[in-house]
């Protein structure tokens, strides 16, 4: 059994790596490929009478670890400077308006189309309103620098705001006063604790020695996340702030005592830490989406009610996103319109909302169809943008070639030149 488990785990990682290469080469949705592979594995194992155990416990655990690592990886790559105030402000505003608009619309949809009580409908709506940084950040890899930074900031803010809103809604029990107190009080306390913890993390990185350096740091971040969640705060703020501080040590240089702690090897240490986080993120995310596909019942995906809800959700997301980006005058709004996937964070929050069975009426297939649909649209937009860019490059090369002199000394005719005579 042990050898079989090792064989299965290593094979799944190799498959995920293959999908990652194929996805980047042919502009295919890596997340969608992983989920579909999990669905196929489920059908094969069911036919031969095998079933993976403890899936109900493993999927949320992997999802939480993946979310921590993904937000941390994105934050480590962000540079916080005065020149980036505009993109930070616009991305935060875009994340807030997107969540607010979608939450309001989806709450009404679930209230009247499914028949959920208003408080339950609100809790169910928030997961679908959050942009998944697990899918959005890798999807932005082919964009220019400014749009890519916007996606990283926006999706990270969306995750943090979504978690804040979600747990405030869960704790409020339909009381708006309790909701507001948990939201703003919990958010302020989360930021204060995150800044305090970040000082300790900065000191630890500059003082750490020996071969084992990064595991205690990651364990500490996971511990902070768990403590924050137990206190009904927004634990992703801890991870986001920690990543920003680690990647931007100049933020602490205004304090002389902290500036003196800065080690000459700090930059090399951070580069090594980023490499480790990237490797762990890939493995965790791969296992999560594969097991999520295995965990999904194909019958849920074929239910007409699930399709109707999913189409309404996906349609509203992209219809309102283009208008929002245009309103905020975001650069390259046409490309960014399609980078609004629902994924890991959506699944995790939905599972948390359904812990007490309050969402029994909700068609689970709509959740998976929304994840698959938004992920596929991101990939299709990437392919269209790549083809458009290649066409522009080809046209430019053609114009350049036409301007070169021939051996006889004359210029080759360019496109649009009139024929002689």
List the helices and strands and how they pair.
Layout: H1 2-26, H2 30-47, H3 55-76, H4 85-114, H5 118-129, H6 133-139, H7 145-172, H8 176-207, H9 214-230, H10 235-247, H11 256-260, H12 266-295, H13 298-301, H14 304-327, H15 333-336, H16 344-353, H17 364-402
Helix pairs in contact: 1-12, 2-12, 3-10, 3-12, 3-16, 4-5, 4-7, 4-14, 5-7, 5-16, 7-8, 7-10, 8-10, 9-10, 14-17
Quick rundown:
The chain contains 17 helices and no strands. It is mainly alpha-helical and 421 residues long.
Describe the structure in your own words:
With 421 residues, the protein is mostly helical. It is 76% helix and 0% strand. It has one domain (11-390): Na+/H+ antiporter like fold. It has helices at 2-26, 30-47, 55-76, 85-114, 118-129, 133-139, 145-172, 176-207, 214-230, 235-247, 256-260, 266-295, 298-301, 304-327, 333-336, 344-353, 364-402. It is globular and about 65 Å long.
CATH class categorisation? Mainly Alpha
Specify the overall morphology.
globular
By secondary-structure content and strand pairing, the structural class works out as mainly alpha
Helix count, per DSSP? 17
Oligomer: single chain
Beta-strand content estimate: under 5%
CATH-assigned fold name: Na+/H+ antiporter like fold
* Radius of gyration over C-alpha positions, nearest whole angstrom: 24 Å
Q: What's the main sheet like?
A: none
Q: Strand tally, please?
A: 0
Second CATH tier, the architecture: Up-down Bundle
Task: Determine the N-to-C terminus distance.
Answer: 83 Å
């Amino acid at each position: 059994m042990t050898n079989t488990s090792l064989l299965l785990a290593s094979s799944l990682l190799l498959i995920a790596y293959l999908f990652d290469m194929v996805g980047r080469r042919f502009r295919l949705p890596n997340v969608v490929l992983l989920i579909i592979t999990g669905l196929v594995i489920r059908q094969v194992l069911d036919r031969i009478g095998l079933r993976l155990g403890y899936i109900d416990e493993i999927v949320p655990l992997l999802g939480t670890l993946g979310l921590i690592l993904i937000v941390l990886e994105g934050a480590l790559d962000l540079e916080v400077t005065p020149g980036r105030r505009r993109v930070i402000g616009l991305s935060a505003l875009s994340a807030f308006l997107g969540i607010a608009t979608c939450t309001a619309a989806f709450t009404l949809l679930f209230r009247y189309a499914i028949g959920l009580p208003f408080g339950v409908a609100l809790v169910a709506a928030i997961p679908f309103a959050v942009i998944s940084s697990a899918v959005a950040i890798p999807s932005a890899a082919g964009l220019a620098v400014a749009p890519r930074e916007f996606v990283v900031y926006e999706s990270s803010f969306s995750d943090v705001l979504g978690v804040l809103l979600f747990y405030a809604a869960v704790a409020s029990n339909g009381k708006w006063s309790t909701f507001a107190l948990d939201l703003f009080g919990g958010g302020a306390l989360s930021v204060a604790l995150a800044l305090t913890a970040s000082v300790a993390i900065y000191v630890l990185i500059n003082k750490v020695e020996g071969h084992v350096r990064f595991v205690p740091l990651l364990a500490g971040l996971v511990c902070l996340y768990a403590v924050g969640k137990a206190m009904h705060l927004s634990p992703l703020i801890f991870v986001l702030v920690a990543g920003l501080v680690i990647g931007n040590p100049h933020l602490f240089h205004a304090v002389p005592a902290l500036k003196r702690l800065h080690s000459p090897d700090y930059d090399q240490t951070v580069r090594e830490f980023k490499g480790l986080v990237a490797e762990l993120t890939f493995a965790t995310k791969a296992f999560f989406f594969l097991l999520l596909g295995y965990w999904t019942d194909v019958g849920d995906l074929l239910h007409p009610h699930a399709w109707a809800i999913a189409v309404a959700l996906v349609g509203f997301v992209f219809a309102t996103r283009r208008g929002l980006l245009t309103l905020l005058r975001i650069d390259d709004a046409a490309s960014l319109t399609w980078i609004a996937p629902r994924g890991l964070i959506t699944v995790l929050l939905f599972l948390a909302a359904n812990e007490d069975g309050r969402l029994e009426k909700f068609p689970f297939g709509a959740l998976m169809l929304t994840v698959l649909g938004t992920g596929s649209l991101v990939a299709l937009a990437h392919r269209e943008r790549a083809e458009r860019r290649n066409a522009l490059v080809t046209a430019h090369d053609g114009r350049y070639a036409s301007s070169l002199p021939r051996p006889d000394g004359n210029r080759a005719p360019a496109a649009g030149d009139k024929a002689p005579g």
